[in-house]
Design goal:
Pfam families: Trypsin_2. By secondary structure, the protein is an alpha+beta fold. About 15% of the residues lie in helices and about 40% in strands.
C-alpha cells in the first residue's frame, strides 16, 4: 500500500508567535541587498554549501544582469560578496531566481531562513515583508526595512504569484522575504501592484510568490517546517529529524509527489532506493513511481492514517546516520470504515555535506500484509 511513501510523526507542540522585535532580528539576519548594474533589490539567504550561500530573490531583480556582469549580495554585516555571481538559476515561468555567491574565509557564519508552509496561510493572517528600498530624495542610503500587514487574498496568478497582502512596501524590496508570525519564510515579495506613468507603485496591495511554489522547482532540497513547529536551530541531528518529520504530514495528506520530494533533502545524484521486491530506483524513478502511486490512491478516494511503532537512529560517525522507522498504514474509502492495514520498515541513510544533512539511500521491508 505505502511502497512509494514516507511516514511522518505528528508532534503536538505549537510554536508561539514571535514578538515584533524577534521578527525584526530574524529578518535582518537573513535578508540581503542585491546590487546589480543600474538597479538593486533584495533577497533571502536560503542555504549554505561550504563557503557558498544560496540567495532566493525575484527574477525581475536580476533580469537585466548578463553573464559575467558584476552583481553583489550585501549581507547584514555590511560586507559585499560575489563580484561575479558564481551561478544564477532563473526558474522558468516564475518570477523567482536562485543566486550563489562565495564568502571569504574570514566572513562570519550567516543565518539562514527557516522555511515555513505558505499553504497554511489564510486571509487575515499577519505577515511581515523585509528588504532594502532603493535610495532617493528621502532614503539616501541602503536601509533595512520591515513592514507588517495581513494576507488579504490567495489565488493562482501569472509568474507564480499567489499571495496578496496589504504591506506598505517600496521599490527595491522586491525579492525580500515574507515571514509568518513564527518568523518562518512563507513567500518572496514581488512586483508592484500597478504602474503609474511608467513607475512601479506599490499602492494598497502587494503581491508575493508562495514559498511552496518556489521550492517545488528549485534545484536544491529545502526542508520545510509546519506552522506547529518552533523554528529552533538544528543543534543536533536528533533535533533536525524531530522537525523534519513533524513537517511531513501535511505534504503527505496532499499526496503531491513533486512537493514531497522537493521537500525531502535528497542528494539527487547519489540517491538509490531498494524496494520491497529488491528493485533499485534512482531519484527520478522514485519520483515517477510515487506520482503514479499517489494518483491511483487519490482516484480511489482513499484516506490514510499513519502510526509509528518505533524509530531508531544509528550514528556510524558524526557525518553519517542510519534512521529506521516502522510504520502502520491504515486506509479507508469512507470515514470510520477501515479497508486495510499494512506495516513496513524503512531505513534511510543520511550524510552531512557542508553543514547540511541529506538522504543518500533508502530501503523498505514488509513486516506483514
Amino acid at each position: 500500500m505505502a511502497s512509494a511513501w514516507l511516514g511522518a510523526i505528528a508532534l503536538s507542540r505549537r510554536a508561539r508567535a514571535l514578538s515584533g522585535r524577534e521578527i525584526r532580528d530574524r529578518a535582518a539576519a537573513i535578508t540581503v541587498q542585491i546590487q546589480a548594474a543600474g538597479s538593486s533589490g533584495s533577497g533571502v539567504l536560503l542555504q549554505r554549501q561550504g563557503n557558498r550561500y544560496a540567495v532566493l530573490t525575484a527574477k525581475h531583480v536580476v533580469d537585466a544582469t548578463q553573464p559575467g556582469e558584476e552583481l553583489y549580495a550585501v549581507t547584514s554585516d555590511g560586507r559585499f560578496h560575489g563580484g561575479v555571481v558564481q551561478e544564477m538559476v532563473l526558474l522558468a515561468g516564475l518570477d523567482v531566481a536562485l543566486l550563489w555567491f562565495a564568502v571569504a574565509p574570514e566572513a562570519p557564519d550567516y543565518a539562514l531562513a527557516v522555511v515555513g508552509n505558505s499553504d497554511a496561510l489564510v486571509e487575515t493572517d499577519r505577515i511581515y515583508v523585509a528588504g532594502f528600498p532603493q535610495t532617493g530624495l528621502a532614503i539616501t542610503r541602503p536601509t533595512f526595512t520591515i513592514t507588517q500587514g495581513v494576507v488579504t487574498g490567495k489565488g493562482t496568478y501569472e509568474r507564480g504569484y499567489g499571495l496578496i497582502d496589504d504591506n506598505v512596501t517600496q521599490t527595491g524590496m522586491s525579492g525580500g522575504p515574507i515571514l509568518n508570525q513564527q518568523g518562518q519564510l512563507v513567500g518572496i515579495h514581488g512586483l508592484a501592484e500597478q504602474v503609474v506613468q511608467g513607475v512601479p507603485v506599490k499602492a494598497g496591495l502587494s503581491l508575493g510568490i508562495p514559498i511552496q511554489t518556489a521550492i517545488a522547482v528549485l534545484p536544491i532540497a529545502v526542508p520545510v517546517l509546519s506552522p506547529e513547529d518552533p523554528p529552533a536551530p538544528a543543534d543536533t541531528f536528533d533535533q533536525f529529524l524531530d522537525r523534519y518529520y513533524a513537517a511531513l504530514p501535511r505534504l503527505l495528506e496532499k499526496r503531491d509527489a513533486l512537493s514531497l520530494y522537493s521537500f525531502m533533502p535528497i542528494h539527487k545524484e547519489r540517491f538509490r532506493y531498494r524496494t520491497r521486491t529488491g528493485k533499485v530506483q534512482d531519484y527520478n524513478a522514485r519520483l515517477v513511481g510515487a506520482t503514479e502511486f499517489y494518483q491511483r490512491s487519490l482516484a480511489r478516494g482513499e484516506s490514510w492514517t499513519i502510526l509509528f511503532d518505533e524509530i531508531s537512529i544509528h550514528r556510524p560517525d558524526p557525518n553519517r546516520a542510519l534512521v529506521t522507522h516502522r510504520e502502520t498504514v491504515k486506509w479507508s474509502l469512507w470515514p470510520g470504515l477501515l479497508r486495510g492495514v499494512s506495516r513496513r520498515q524503512e531505513t534511510y541513510e543520511w550524510e552531512r555535506f557542508d553543514h547540511q544533512w541529506m538522504i543518500v539511500s533508502g530501503s523498505e521491508r514488509v513486516l506483514d500484509d
